[in-house]
Specification:
Shape: globular
Structural class: alpha/beta
Distance between the termini: 17 Å
CATH topology: TIM Barrel
Number of domains: 1
Order of helices and strands: HEHEHEHEHEEHHEHHEH
Helix content: 40-55%
Largest sheet: 6 strands, parallel
CATH class: Alpha Beta
Length: about 260
């Protein structure tokens, strides 16, 4: 759901939120960077996935200033599991984190961004308050709290990952710009914003700043490391932080604020 004509006429409150998946030990570096700029994040942590995961002590440290959400036990595609197995993945991931933090885990992020109606209902039945997808160019907290969208992914742009290039003009190489170009035109963003990840992110943030709504940046700390994006990410954090009239919230707090 995008900003309607009525929302253009009556500006919505501005919210900035971020979310980070997979529970890499590099999330500690990311949390400190968020703290430096007064930003809030929701860290979605599976139990068994990456070779260098957050320890239980690390999870507690992050939860002191940010939100921790569930992301399955093994980061499996829940749409390919039986309902019994999917429920086990979802519920045990909640129980695992609640046992560490001794507090309720409100948010769930669908592993790989994949879900269907059955999976969504299983998340609801497991006691979560909401769930995050990876649907891009979303700027509102939708009525369906179990299909929370995002605005942008922290990812190399306009060209994709070098490690997946099969030949100079492969679809993988140009996929990021292919996915973004239509929305850049639809939203009326400056065409030059497609020249880099920083310029696109600034243009999308300015779009929300003018019209109101939610700016939701998401990614993976291990990808930021792999693609050497720490400097560009910090530049964006500096750009979006400490703005008057903006609320900097965790994912679940966006729902509460919208309500």
């Amino acid at each position: 759901m995008q900003l309607s004509q009525q929302n253009h006429q009556t500006k919505l409150p501005c919210i900035v939120t971020t979310s980070w998946d997979d529970g890499s030990v590099l999330d500690l570096k990311l949390a400190k960077l968020l703290d430096k700029y007064g930003l809030k994040g929701t860290f979605y942590v599976p139990k068994n996935y990456l070779p260098n995961p957050l320890s239980e002590r690390d999870v507690v440290y992050i939860a002191e200033r940010h939100e921790v959400g569930a992301h399955g036990i093994s980061h499996s595609d829940l749409t390919q599991l039986t309902i019994v197995h999917a429920l086990k993945e979802i519920r045990e991931s909640k129980n695992f984190l609640e046992s560490i933090l001794n507090q309720e885990i409100a948010m769930f992020a669908y592993p790989l961004g994949l879900y269907n109606q059955i999976v969504k209902e299983a998340v609801k039945r497991s006691g979560f308050s909401g769930a995050r997808t990876i649907k891009p160019f979303h700027f509102l907290v939708d009525d369906d709290l179990f299909e929370m969208g995002v605005s942008l992914h922290v990812y190399p742009f306009p060209l994709g990952r070098k490690g997946t290039w099969n030949y100079p003009f492969s679809r993988t190489l140009i996929k990021p710009i292919m996915l973004a170009y239509r929305d850049v035109i639809r939203l009326g963003l400056p065409v030059k914003s497609i020249l880099s990840w920083q310029s696109l992110t600034q243009a999308v943030f300015n779009y929300v700043l003018v019209r109101g709504g939610m700016f939701h940046l998401w990614g993976h700390s291990w990808e930021i490391e792999q693609f050497q994006m720490w400097r560009s990410l910090e530049e964006i954090f500096d750009f979006i932080s400490k703005r008057d009239g903006i609320k900097y919230l965790t994912n679940s707090s966006c729902f509460k604020d919208a309500g």
